[in-house]
Amino acid sequence: MPDTDPRQAGASVDAIADRILGAIWEHRLPPGTKLVEEKLASAFGVSRTKVRLALARLTHDGVLSTEPNRGTFVGSPSVAQARQVFEARRLIELAMVRELAGTITREGVARLRRNVALEAASRARDDRHATIRLSGEFHLLLAQLGGNAFLQRAMRELCSLTCLVIALYDAPGMPSCPHHEHTEIVDALEAGDGELAARRMAVHLEHIEGTLRLEMPAEVAVDFDALFR
Ligand SMILES: [Zn+2]
């Protein structure tokens, strides 16, 4: 018996990072989870060095946080950070679809529709993990079609953080992305109507943020006298 899984023996640093990121996107690795190098190295059948490099990449991407003497953890955005994530997404994504409406090809529209169809199928079979991942990938695909590598990188980080935010603050039973809204955004892009696409994106991001419970106060003044006296 080989002591490593042959399918993963040659896994590259990027492949390992992508699989960890995929698990975060699918909500299989919850926010705050400690990532132990030895355990991951044995799970992937690779050296600890490769795991360390993969974790460093994800830390650099803003998805993991490293705390001195404590280790590396899946990120756990605060309420204030969650608000900033949505603010940044509004600034980027509205401008992105406005521009994309003038440049998108028929093939681009088809790729977006394929994503929407896959998401609908995973929703229909009640596969929550795949649904969350695909709904995030829709937004990454928009960035990809836009062709700006810097915006793609920013969107990758923002979508990953959104997944963590949803895992932390989602009201139970609420869908992450109302899925007919993706269809409506694609319709506007296909029609070449950038303003309509931007308006629909604004409503869409508002809906996602609205399903979250971000109203928790960061600091609560505790009256210790009332509490313990
Ligand atoms: Zn969406």
TrEMBL record:
The keyword Transcription applies. Residues 10-77 form the HTH gntR-type domain. Keywords: DNA-binding, Transcription, Transcription regulation. The keyword Transcription regulation applies. InterPro entries: GntR_C (IPR011711), TF_FadR/GntR_C (IPR008920), Tscrpt_reg_HTH_GntR (IPR000524), WH-like_DNA-bd_sf (IPR036388), WH_DNA-bd_sf (IPR036390). It holds the Pfam family FCD. GO terms for molecular function: DNA binding; DNA-binding transcription factor activity. SUPFAM superfamilies: GntR ligand-binding domain-like, Winged helix' DNA-binding domain. PANTHER family: HTH-TYPE TRANSCRIPTIONAL REPRESSOR NANR, TRANSCRIPTIONAL REGULATOR, GNTR FAMILY. This is Transcriptional regulator, GntR family. It comes from Piscinibacter sakaiensis.
